[in-house]
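Every protein is a chain of amino acids, and every chain bends into a shape of its own. The protein below has been through that process, and both of its lines are reproduced in full.
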Amino acid sequence: MTQDAVKGKQDWKAIAWEWAESIVVAFVFAMIIRSFLIEPFKIPSGSMRMTLIEGDRLFVPKVEYGPLVPFTKYRLPGFKKPQRGDVIVFRYPVTRDKDFIKRLIAFGGETVQIKDGKLIIDGRVMTEGTMANIHYYNMGHYGAEGQTITVPPGQLFVLGDNSAASHDSRFWGFVPEELLVGKAECIFWPPNRIRWIK
C-alpha cells in the first residue's frame, strides 16, 4: 500500500470518527433537552376539541412543574404547582406506555360530581375559566349520574374538553402525580393554529 493510500485511509477514519462523535454529542444534548426542558407532542385524537384538534403540534415545557429524572420517580423542583384548569400531559395510568393530554379538574382530597352538565368541586359549581363553558356528560364508572367521588391523596382527576368523546378519569380513574409530564403551553404547528393554550 502506498504512503498516499495509507494517509487517505487515516484521513477517512478521522473524518468518520469526527462525524460519529458529533452525532453522539447531538443525541445526548437532544435527550437532555427532551427529558428536562421541553418536549414536542402531536395531538392524535379529538378528545380535547375545540381547545386542541387532531394534528396540532405543541410544546410542553417540563421545568415549570419540575422534570422527572428518567427511569426514577424523583422529580426535580419546579417553579410552579399545577393549577386547576391547566391542560396537562401525563403518562396513561392504566398501561403507562403512552402519553395522554387532558384538563386538570381536581386534586387529591377534593370531591367531584357532574350534574346537569356542570362540574361540582367540593360542593361548588365551577363558574370560571374554560371548564364553565363545557357541557360534561355523565359517563363511565367515575362519572355516573348522582355520583360524588373523592380523589385519593397524591392523585389527579382529569377530563377531556370534548366530553362526549373523551376517554378520561370518568372511565379509568385517577392520575398519580408522579406520572405528570408537564403543562401544554402553546401550539406551534400548523401555522394557522399557532396560539397559547388556555
